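Tokenise the fold.
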Amino acid sequence: MYKVASTNESHAVQFTILCFSDLPHLQVPLFVIFLTIYLNVIFGNTAVLFAIVFYPHLHTPMYILLSNLSVVDISYTSTILPNLLIMLSTQHRIMSLVGCITQMYFFIFFACMEVILLAVMAYDRYVAVCHPLHYTVLMSLRTCRVVLISIWIATFLEPVSLTTLIAKLSFCSSNQIDHFFCDISPLLKLSCSDTIYANIAIYIFGAMFGVGTFFLTLVSYIYIVFNIMNIHSAVGRSKTFSTCASHLTSVLLFYGTTLSLYMRPTSMYSPRQDKFFSLLYIVLIPLLNPVIYTLKNKQFKDAFKKLINILCFVKNM
């Protein structure tokens, strides 16, 4: 039995991340695919971030929130994919308990930031659609900055209790994590301790950050839909809905994968299914978000042109 009662013992516990070891013939193709995806995630979200920073017309609450979303997408993808790429290229899949808990902490932190930002962005769209005359008051730049600072601080501190509770568990004969990173469910499956308190904490945590923020987002969109339905002009309805379509698409992608993955008992854990859903929100969502938010956005297209001109000017110098 592995015990984690002391610091020395905590360092001694090591896990083997099985990753995609059941697909030995696909290790090189998977490495190439994930490397390409990771580089595109970094490039796409960095481009969005730089466009917002360097284009004054995008210095509004909606785009400031989007810039934070890009930072979060880069961060929580970087928490997983670089280590996954190392495992695929070197076949070294050993991770210490400290490393495992650290990865889990930062993943939870950035995932919570994502879900809260999506809820705040939904509220931003609600105010813009339902109370346009009061938008500059309810969503001023100062209010936006205060809200963002508060969210970053609160979300940074919140996962400490959950990860500490998991770190104190004992781990038994098997130390193989059938996943490609240290996720909560596969780690709890290895514990020979009573995990009832950890499961309760997970459900409370999920209710606060998953169901709670989903409810706030849902209420915002219910009001938005009713407001759009009251617009008599079909052109007006279409134009108003288009201001929310990008965010709504991102919300549906995120919640569709995370709620189905985490809001269920650990006894229903299925490694193959969980790897698939995890890939969707770790890889697909950060990859698609820059496209979703910029594809039909004229302001972003202008900002990208300006950014390209700046880069070309610097290159010529």
Notes: The radius of gyration is 22 Å.
